[in-house]
Amino acid sequence: MENQYIIKGGTPLRGEVTISGAKNAALGILAAAIMTDETVLIDNLPNVRDINVLLSAIESIGATVNRIGPHEVEINGSTITDVTVDDDFIRKIRASYYLLGALLGKYNKAKVALPGGCDIGSRPMDQHLKGFRALGATVNMGFGMIDTHADVLTGNHIFMDVVSVGATINIMLAACMAEGKTVIENAAKEPHIVDVANFLNSMGANIKGAGTDKIRIRGVEKLHASEYSIIPDQIEAGTFMVAAAATKGDVLIKNVIPKHLEAISGKLTEIGATVEEFDDAVRVHCTERLHHTQVKTSPYPGFPTDMQPQIATLLALSDGTSTVTESIFENRFKYVDELMRMGANIKVEGNVAIIEGVGGLTGASISAPDLRAGAALVVAGLVSEGYTTVDSIQYIERGYECFEDKMTALGAYMDKIPVDDDRAIQKFKLKVG
Ligand code: UD1
Fold it and tell me: Is the CB of 156 under 6 A from ligand 1?
């Protein structure tokens, strides 16, 4: 049965929230885990839909997946019998394409369904394939599949034409057991690139420079067992930071790496919120109406595109005229119409949203267009007058663990109920008054 969120807005968020492991790091790490025949133990795994789909894809090729607990999994790749990952998985989650790099790197062959277009814009894979070819692989496309194989993979000097998180990870995976040395220039520098590299190194790979734009990989013969804990999710943390500021709340966001949040903290401070940094936590509080600013998304350490809808929602409620420029994905303003239905004043011109701050929003029945925009609309619901329902929450559940529980623990009036269940809506309204 499909669910929706119901929210009664207007309550400042207060208290503490603990951030889960980083989904985007986990996707790379789980794929990497199949590259050894020994058992790998991974913890701080976020218990979200994307991760569970990737684990099913990993099981479907014959690897042994032992879910020890909601946040801990053991993977053994020695039982893999198949190097083909079919359409079902790639349609549900694009990042199953990391199995392409992992299988190619381990077995010199892989066949993975071609990911289709995505809600946030066209997402080509040319840089991934350029990398595989540079390592000596033949890549064929046909019948909706990417089919790649090599007699031997040999290290090479690869210059990325576009800064791509996915391509950087996929090439690292394919290159870590190639013969000789690989250099990836113009590599992405996101925290999850570093986390995947650290994990591969913990299995015996030799990768240096992850986190800079030049990654050097010396191929090793094989990888071995490892125990590894995934970094905290930068975007989940950022979303709670924005929610705290938007509701004029006071929230301690725990289990974070404050350095990874600097672009977000910087913007929040600039517009008038208070952000305090601790060793592994940040506290965001806010009492006054916030100010306008300009935001432009760019690869790390710039402002993350995955925080663009959330910051735009916050600016929709801030004083004056703000602009938000999306420079990574071309179709990432689909939530704007929903925000306008709640009373926001936003005009989109090309890749720029021009936002006239309004005094408040009003509750409405809205729909999550994608993962991060969905989270932003929940934040909008939390500050709106009256009731908001958000449907298509399966997008939000791809990347946010127990979103409604974490919000409720901070004092939000929010619940997950079946779509079209009027009785559940009435019950919620009676409960929250
Ligand atoms: C990853 C994140 C996603 C985030 C994005 C940008 C994961 C699982 N997903 O997505 O949440 O929004 O980084 O931070 O980690 N491009 C090409 N050719 C390619 C590959 C990419 O032109 O071969 C372009 C894309 O169209 C886009 C830009 O490069 O404009 C960045 O994309 P990329 O960094 O690859 O994003 P993903 O890895 O798909």
Answer: no
- Which helix H or strand E contains 43, and what residues bound it? strand 39-43
Q: Is 167 in the pocket of ligand 1 (CB under 6 A)?
A: yes
d(CA 242, CA 306): 13
pLDDT on residue 117:
46
Chain mean position to CA 337: 23
Which class would CATH give 23-229? alpha beta
Residue spans of the domains in the chain: they are 3-20+232-432, 23-229
Nearest CA to ligand 1 atom 33: 164
- Map residue 314 onto helix, strand or coil: helix
- Do 3-20+232-432 and 23-229 have matching folds? yes
Tokens representing residue 223 in the block: 């990888």
Contact 75, 39 (CB under 8 A): yes
C-alpha 101 to ligand 1 mean position (Å) = 16
Distance CA 366, CA 309 (A): 15
Query: Whose structure tokens read 């710039």?
Result: 302
| 144 vs 387, more confident | 387
| Residue that the structure tokens 């350490």 belong to | 301
Mean pLDDT confidence for 184-207: 98
pLDDT for 337 beyond 60? yes
Question: Measured between alpha carbons, how far is residue 219 from residues 27, 140, 188, 196, 222 in Å?
Answer: 22, 24, 20, 16, 9
Q: Which of 29, 122, 123 is the pocket-test mutation for ligand 1 (most atoms within 8 Å of CB)?
A: 123
The residue assigned the tokens 């991934």 is 128
For 18-63, what is each residue's pLDDT tens digit?
A: 999 999 999 999 999 999 999 999 999 999 999 999 999 999 999 9
CA distance 87 to 60: 12
Apex 181 CA angle, 133 and 198, nearest 5: 95
- 209-243: pLDDT as tens digits: 999 999 999 999 999 999 999 999 999 999 999 99
Cβ atoms of residues 31 and 98 within 8 Å: yes
Encode pLDDT of 114-160 as tens digits.
875 456 566 789 999 999 999 999 999 888 889 999 999 999 999 99
Domain 3-20+232-432 adopts which CATH fold?
UDP-n-acetylglucosamine1-carboxyvinyl-transferase; Chain (3.65.10)
Backbone dihedral angles phi then psi of residue 383, each to the nearest 5 degrees: -105, -5
CA angle 172, 183, 42 (to 5 degrees): 25
The pLDDT value recorded for residue 123 is 75
